Amino acid sequence: MFATGIENSIPTINNGKTRVDEMELCGHYTHWREDFDAVQELGIQFLRYGPPLHRTFLGPDRYDWDFADITFAELKRRDITPIVDLCHFGVPDWMGNFQNPDFPRLFADYAGAFADRFPWVQVYTPVNEMFICAVFSAKYGWWNEQLRSDQGFVTALKHVVKANVLAMLAILKRRADAIFIQSESSEYFHADSPKAIHIAEQLNSRRFLSLDLNYGRRVDSDMFEYLMDNGMTSEEYHFFLHNRLKQHCILGNDYYRTNEHRVFEDGRTTSSGEVFGYTEITRQYYNRYRLPVMHTETNLSEGPVGDEAVQWLWKEWANVLRLRNVGIPTVGFTWYSLTDQVDWDTALREQNGHVNPLGLYDLNRNIRNVGRAYKRLIRDWREVLPASSLCLTVPIVSPAHYELQHAREQEAEAKERLRHEEIDLGREDGS
Asked: What SUPFAM superfamilies has UniProt attached to this entry (predicted)?
């Protein structure tokens, strides 16, 4: 699956007073047709995409589907398969923030309503980068609730991951052959000195928490104590163990130069740059979860020479091929995003209006060098790879094939399999 994305990040900053809407900043609400043209021009058939949550989810059982209706109808007409991103770093104002214990239930209602309205959609990322969302909102103090505490982080994390699980349950109830691609940041923490080893080990355990909970994997003893000491109850923990949906998932992971960190003995961290790289860190995640892998985000600024992003694309693609060659089932690659982004250099926490040249296209919708390189890469490799991509038990049904008989049969078979799984789709609260 060669993919790109149109980012729908919507965190709030300034103590909730300011909404950062990347779709608005990057002009997608105006230029969405041109953006879809660009996706097709590149030869891309999979698009990470979703409606802006704050403009669509107006209140309990209240939705404004106008923009989603026109854009998703156009994706279906063009036979572009969306990987639907339902929550990207923020919630509507009426919901507050990720400390709200009602968020998981409310979000599951929204996911179910979306699946009802767009039954032809099969592939989802319900909540994007759950770990980063909780860290930036409640540990670093950058977004949304802007807390800086372990208890705030654990509260945000348990709500975000529970929302993701309940959303998967709600979608499966309506589309039994749904596939969920987690887009989670792949991290690693390097100790700067022997005195920093213990801190680095703790951080390297903590990086797995979102996926451990999401996949119903028991955490290690240190992390169990950490969760319990910071507000998670035994009942909440066992919710995740009893609602195990791993078998419906692809391990999507994101990798940037900033994903590796240098840890100092006083607890400070800084970016270390690329040390291990995507292959080694992904191998760690794969060995833990044993799921098919998709590289769901990467990018680099074009740079003063003009070929920096092209070289990064080549390097990340070489890493993906290496994973496949050592036997790790790898099903996709994503350059993120389609267009340049605004204020990515400050992680969306400052309103500077800086246009970061990270996209396949600039904000005038002119193709960049990396866009041309990605187009060639897709053309050259598309026909080489499918023969070894049979790790998906459930095939992806393109929008154009949704009404065909084989798609109906596949969904019927998936419903039968669900009856034998130890999950209760009748209770959307997951209890």
From this structure: (Trans)glycosidases
